[in-house]
Amino acid sequence: MLPCCGVYVPLFAFLSVVAPAQNPAPQQSAARESTTAAACDDADYRKFDQTLSFLRERNARQYAIDSAKGVDEAMYVHLGGIDQWVTIRGEDRQNPVLLFVHGGPGDVTNPWSFALFAAWEKRFTVVQWDQRGAGRTLRETGPSVASTMTLDRIAQDGIELSEYLRKRLGKNRIVLVAHSFGSILGLRMVQARPDLFYAYVGTGQVSDETKNYFVAYAALLGKAQATGNRQAVVELRRVGPPPYPNGEGYGVQRKWANSFEGADRFLPGTLGLALVAPGNSVRDLNDSIDGQILSGDRLVPQARSSTSKDLGLEFAVPMFFFQGTDDFTTPTALASQYLGAIKAPHKEFVPIDGGHFAVFMNSDQFLRELVAHVLPLAGSQ
Predict the structure, then answer these.
(1) Is the pLDDT of residue 290 over 60?
(2) Domain 71-210+263-378: homologous superfamily in CATH
(3) Is the pTM of this model over 0.85?
(4) How many CB atoms lie within 10 A of CB 22?
């Protein structure tokens, strides 16, 4: 670290304030040092940004869709009266179309999933969509869309997108994969318009928001005891089972859910992927954060009391839950119980090694299961 950077500058500023009176011009000296530090920081950032630009260009070449039969598009599509950001990538246009509905709410996966879904693009044309109030869609519209952000409206946006994809890509139907909060939207989509979809695949599946934290607490405590994690046992017993009078109890649950699932190691890595993703910039991170805040404020209260009955118990499409074996965020046992209560022409529970983010952390196994269980339903296009 250069002496003009980092901790040295605040320390110098502090000393200049408390320095003895014989210092002839402490304020001028501090100002000069501050200017030097700013120049140093700016130079460091420019060098860092150059490195990121190099990595983005390298990744653009490495993950390019080179096949003449492939598709690689990124654009705004007019849905529900506003322009929404959509990407379409696949190595063969003849492959079935897979629409991925991100969770959060507002947690767009477009900025960082390029490496994780690359293998999927060999077997499917993968579509990602920054939902209303999230990511680059929020960048385009601004927060003025807040009043329109309802579960029904966003599900209808998804239906309009599905119709658009069928026409643009020449498909009869598409496969819908929905993660976490996105599964609430995905269920509404397939229930309202089953004619658009070959199958529904829920992962990190929301099953009953009124029971979720109760079931998760019991599963977390059981895991802590089984693994001999004394700290987890002590902290979980201290807060006890929900409901909680404040956010502390939920924070303890989230802490240990992330720890046992490995999410506390995975999630920081998505920031790095976002910084080196082709076509990205720091602005995409800011858009993502802004979208999660806005979406959480608007959408979480709408879903907080959703029961299995509210989510839906009868569907006219094949229903699959690809659930992490150790999901303590949307508990595995609760998802299995919910699927058992569903009526559908076909339904199947497929365990994936991992937790709430198994679709990303174990994306290769997830793809193998998609090919084995879902791809045959799409048939030849």
Answers:
(1) yes
(2) Alpha/Beta hydrolase fold, catalytic domain (3.40.50.1820)
(3) yes
(4) 6
